[in-house]
Amino acid sequence: MLCPCGCGEVLHMSLHPDGRPRWELTRHPDGTVSLSPSVWRKVGCRSHFFLERGRVRWCK
Ligand SMILES: [Zn+2]
Prior knowledge:
The structure is a single chain. The protein is mainly β and about 60 residues long. The chain has one domain. It is about 0% helix and about 35% strand. It has a 4-stranded antiparallel sheet with strand order 1-2-3-4, with no helix packed on it. The radius of gyration is 12 Å and the shape is globular. Bound molecules: zinc ion. Zinc ion (ZN) binds next to loops.
């Protein structure tokens, strides 16, 4: 996915069960997805956010 902060970076979240770190993608009946845990970039823009039901919720 493209970083939601607008910096233009492409973020890769591993969903592979053996990968570390890894994220869990939950598909909801309404077609949206949630990602857990939060995404926290340690480099670049240092964005920290949750993806909940297709919407980005920023962490302060
Ligand atoms: Zn960014």
